[in-house]
């Protein structure tokens, strides 16, 4: 980011190490900085956290204005309910992608612009590069911490205002910056998994939202439709799952599909998991003019490697993705992010065949 004390910068402050270090660093470099913190969680989803108070303490300590947004209703609608509904539809949701698109780099970003922000800054580990074609989203230097996958769905005009100064920092360097603030922020542990799911107990959460739907018993069937056993709710199963099926004996079986309409879990051999084509919708294109088709690399899950693919764009904001090599465990509902080398060109969401 070029140094300019006339540039007004909004930092999305969660109260964690990354955003606290970012706010402190930019203030120290002479930017006109203010922070915004969102209250997102309400009972029964809210863990015992002090993030809002921590963000306020950091803002006061480094001497920047601090604003507060109560987005609990929006977060429930766009993220928590979406998460629950997706599982009940037999999908594997992408709540962090949705939160970035609708909440952090949606509602918060637009509020920051209303407050006069020239730039919106987050603690994401992603590389925002200034080019003749505008701001481009790239993978972070430390690929083990890269979060560019979670940002492919944000609006292009917001991308032009977004900056992520931690792209080339290690976590140890970030903690060292946070320690200079003089609070105990640098000692906070990294956030794990999904912020609104306590200890990974997502079934309990969905049961609180939809108590009459979650544990509805149904059939476990093979791809020919033969009943092999019973399940206690489709949300207990994910594509690629092998353990806990309760149908032991014979060759190993894996979850290959979830049929929410008929309340069935479909199992098969390991080979049945491998596919080389998929459909995606809700395409968000971050590059220049969108071609009819393009060869690039895709990421189908946040922790998976990139895969060579050809993307053919279709009507109705859909695309067909042809993989160079078959991939095991393509999960409808997950994001499919497009990469050209390190450059993120956008992406979409995997839909059922």
Report on the structure:
By secondary structure, the protein is α/β, with parallel strands linked by helices. It contains 7 helices and 17 strands. Helix 1 packs across helix 6 and helix 3 packs antiparallel against helix 4. 41% of the residues are buried. About 1% of the residues have low confidence.
Named CATH topology of the largest domain: Rossmann fold
- Strand share of the residues? 25-35%
Order of SSEs, N→C?
Answer: EHEHEHHEEEHEHHEEEEEEEEEE
How far apart the termini lie comes to 43 Å
What is the overall number of helices?
Answer: 7
Structural class by SSE content: alpha/beta
Helix amount, in percent?
10-25%
Uncertain segments are: 45-49
Number of strands: 17
Going across the biggest sheet, name each strand in turn: 12-15-14-13-16-17
CATH class of the largest domain: Alpha Beta
Task: Describe the structure concisely for a colleague.
Helix content is 23%, strand content 30%.
What's the arrangement of secondary structure elements?
Blueprint: E1 8-12, H1 17-28, E2 32-39, H2 51-62, E3 66-70, H3 72-88, H4 95-114, E4 119-121, E5 126-131, E6 134-139, H5 156-159, E7 162-163, H6 171-179, H7 202-209, E8 218-222, E9 227-231, E10 254-259, E11 264-268, E12 274-285, E13 293-299, E14 307-313, E15 319-328, E16 335-340, E17 343-351
Parallel strand pairs: 1-2, 1-4, 2-3, 4-7, 8-11
Antiparallel strand pairs: 5-6, 6-17, 8-9, 10-11, 12-15, 12-17, 13-14, 13-16, 14-15, 16-17
Helix pairs in contact: 1-2, 1-6, 3-4
């Amino acid at each position: 980011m070029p140094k300019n004390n006339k540039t007004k910068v909004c930092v999305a402050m969660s109260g964690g190490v990354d955003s606290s270090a970012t706010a402190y660093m930019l203030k120290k470099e002479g930017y006109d900085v203010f922070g915004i913190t969102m209250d997102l969680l309400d009972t029964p989803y809210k863990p015992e956290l002090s993030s809002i108070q921590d963000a306020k303490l950091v803002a006061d300590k480094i001497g920047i204005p601090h604003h507060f947004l109560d987005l609990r209703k929006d977060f429930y609608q766009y993220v928590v309910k979406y998460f629950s509904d997706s599982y009940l539809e037999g999908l594997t949701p992408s709540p962090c992608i949705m939160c970035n698109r609708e909440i952090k780099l949606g509602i918060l970003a637009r509020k920051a612009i209303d407050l006069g922000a020239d730039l919106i800054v987050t603690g994401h580990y992603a590389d925002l590069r200034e080019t003749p074609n505008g701001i481009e989203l790239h993978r972070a230097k430390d690929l083990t911490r890269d979060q560019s996958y979670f940002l492919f769905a944000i609006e292009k005009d917001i991308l032009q205002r977004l900056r992520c100064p931690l792209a080339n920092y290690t976590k140890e360097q970030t903690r060292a910056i946070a320690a200079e603030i003089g609070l105990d922020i640098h000692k906070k542990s990294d956030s794990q998994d999904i912020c609104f799911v306590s200890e990974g107990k997502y079934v309990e959460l969905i049961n609180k939202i939809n108590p009459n739907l979650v544990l509805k018993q149904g059939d476990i069937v093979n791809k020919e439709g033969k009943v092999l056993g019973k399940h206690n709710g489709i949300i207990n199963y994910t594509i690629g799952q092998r353990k806990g099926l309760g149908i032991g004996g014979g060759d190993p079986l894996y979850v290959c599909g979830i049929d929410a309409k008929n309340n069935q879990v479909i199992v098969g051999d390991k080979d049945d998991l491998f596919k080389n084509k998929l459909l995606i919708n809700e395409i968000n294109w971050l590059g220049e003019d969108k071609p009819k088709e393009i060869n690039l690399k895709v990421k189908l899950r946040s922790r998976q490697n990139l895969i060579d693919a050809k993307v053919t764009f279709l009507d109705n904001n859909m695309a067909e993705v042809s993989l160079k090599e078959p991939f095991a465990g393509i999960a409808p509902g997950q994001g499919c992010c497009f990469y050209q080398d390190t450059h993120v060109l956008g992406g979409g969401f995997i839909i059922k065949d």
